[in-house]
């Protein structure tokens, strides 16, 4: 009998694996609605939906292996990273989804959130002031006008599965919506800067690398406290705190 493996679990949601079936438990049905609709629309490989019975969504495992994990060396080849870039370009060229995106924020709102988070990080002694100040400066480049595209919204490296030089599936679409293309590229390469050139080669168009680096800082600054509060360790080698230190 297949054992039950906890893939991720925190107070907002949990994902379990039983054999080749993933069970996603989420009381926020709007988030699951987005995931289901996004997988039906996107022009890239996604998991098969087996059934849905709120608050549970059952999906089939995708073939291949994850491109990597944050904090660990990637086993993906340059060709695999380039294939990921090509798949992301295909997604970004797709027609916009009918919903705006769960996390879409205007520049003023984003600045206010970032400044508030930076103040909390320093006041509560979570991170040194000089580290926060430097990365707040770097993050400024990400706060600019951008043309919305169909984005994954949470394109972490472990959400992209590959086999050789082919993308076999992209998972976890609950944050999909209209967003900044460079946010997706930055999320994928967070902590794996050495593969950025491969991704951009596959993406096939010029991008502003300063903006991608700015998103690394911005995403990390906004994520550190949440990660700590939900039982994760952003200070593990290669993770968010190391990403922030790399900007010093």
TrEMBL record:
It comes from the Bacteria. GO terms for molecular function: transferase activity. Signal peptide: none annotated. Residues 40-204 form the Aminoglycoside phosphotransferase domain. It holds the Pfam family APH. This is Aminoglycoside phosphotransferase. It comes from Streptomyces violaceusniger (strain Tu 4113). The lineage of its organism: Bacteria, Bacillati, Actinomycetota, Actinomycetes, Kitasatosporales.
